[in-house]
Amino acid sequence: MQLGNKVLVYISCCLAGRAYPLGDIPCDNVARVRTDVLHCLTALHTASGAVDEPLYPQLWTLIQFDTREFFNVLSLAFGDVGLTDAEKQGVVDILLRMMVDSSGFTHCQVTSLGLCHTIDKIGQFLWALSS
Q1: Is 66 buried (19+), middle (13-18) or exposed (0-12) by CB count in 10 A?
Q2: Domain around 35
C-alpha cells in the first residue's frame, strides 16, 4: 500500500515538473519527463507483454489500486499548463475506451472518470470564457 501511494506521488510530481521527493526537475527536462511518464502510463502493453496481460496494464494497476487518488493525480496534471490538449484528450480517450471495452470497472470507478473528465471540460470552458 505504501509503495502504491509513493508511485502516485511520484507520477504527480513528474507531471507537475517537480522532482521526487523534493525540488524541481531541470527546466530543459520537464517536457521530456512529462511525455515519458504519459507514454509509460498509456502504454498498450508492458515490455514483457504477457499473454494474459490487459490492455494498458499500468493504468489498470493504478485504477485498481486507488481510483480516486489516481484520478486526482490526473486532474492536477490536467490543470497544469505543461500538458497539451492532445495529451489530455489522449488519456481521456484511452480511459473511456478501457471502460467501454471492459466490464472490469466498478460503478465508483466509472463515476470517478466521469467527474475527472467533467472537471477538465468545465475548466476548459471557463478558460475560454475568460480569454
Answers
A1: middle
A2: 2-130
